[in-house]
Design goal:
Distance between the termini: 25 Å
Largest sheet: 6 strands, parallel
Strand order of the largest sheet: 3-4-2-1-5-6
Number of helices: 7
Helix content: 40-55%
Shape: globular
Order of helices and strands: EHHEHEHEHHEEH
Radius of gyration: 18 Å
Number of strands: 6
Structural class: alpha/beta
């Protein structure tokens, strides 16, 4: 498996609320446990040598959740990043944000900016947090940037277009994982995942640990990625 590791793994972290419900706990406890899973997966990905890891942390659509829950999520994110920053620096992990950060609460936004700045020179792994993110709006944003620059869309190829996405300079995800038994991509990396391999698991995100990640990677290692071509006879 080691010689067939993906360069870029993207994860839709789903099931925190259901995990809490199954354990007779408030939803916020599911989110707390979810941060522990995130820490475990970041550390294991770094240990394995994964170059890029993208975690879908908060979508544009998530603003429709109860205000108290949204406020809790952003406060939890700030606490998580403050606590994990020394580890990110020690493990040479660069933090990058995908999404419209201007709408994120100011206190959390300041922590995100600080953590991004402090890890800017790190090179061993890039950790992308998709926050206030929408795949459709990311594509529209890229189109507007191209038009604002006065570029001719007719001369644009997919590679050049990709330089106007949040993930500019990074490889597209080789493997997209979704937890909790849902079979959809929920507006996540729509352009970038055109030829990604997908792995769906019934495991709820708070129960997704290094062992579960290895199951996904083992499954990925058996895939035959042809990118639209045919297999040689």
């Amino acid at each position: 498996m080691q010689d067939r590791l993906p360069r870029h793994i993207a994860i839709i972290m789903d099931g925190n609320g259901r995990w809490a419900g199954r354990h007779g706990l408030p939803r916020v406890e599911g989110h707390k446990q979810g941060t522990r899973s995130a820490r475990s997966i970041v550390e294991e990905s770094r240990r394995l040598g994964i170059q890029h890891l993208t975690l879908y942390a908060f979508s544009k659509e998530n603003w429709s959740r109860p205000r108290d829950e949204v406020n809790f999520l952003f406060n939890l994110l700030g606490e998580f990043l403050n606590g994990e920053l020394p580890t990110l620096i020690r493990q040479d992990i660069r933090l990058n944000i995908l999404g419209e950060t201007g709408e994120i609460p100011l206190a959390t936004r300041k922590i995100l900016q600080m953590a991004s700045n402090r890890t800017r020179s790190n090179r061993s792994m890039q950790l992308n947090l998709a926050l206030n993110y929408s795949g459709r709006l990311e594509i529209l944003r890229a189109c507007r940037l191209i038009l604002d620059k006065g570029l001719d869309p007719a001369r644009m190829d997919p590679g050049e277009f990709g330089q106007y996405l949040y993930t500019a300079g990074q490889p597209d995800p080789d493997l997209v994982i979704r937890t909790s038994g849902e079979y959809r991509i929920s507006n996540f990396l729509l352009y970038q995942s055109a030829y990604s391999e997908f792995y769906f698991t019934e495991t709820l995100w708070p129960d997704f640990d290094a062992g579960e990640l290895h199951k996904a990677l083992e499954d990925y290692s058996r895939r035959n990625r042809r990118f639209g071509a045919v297999e040689p006879v």
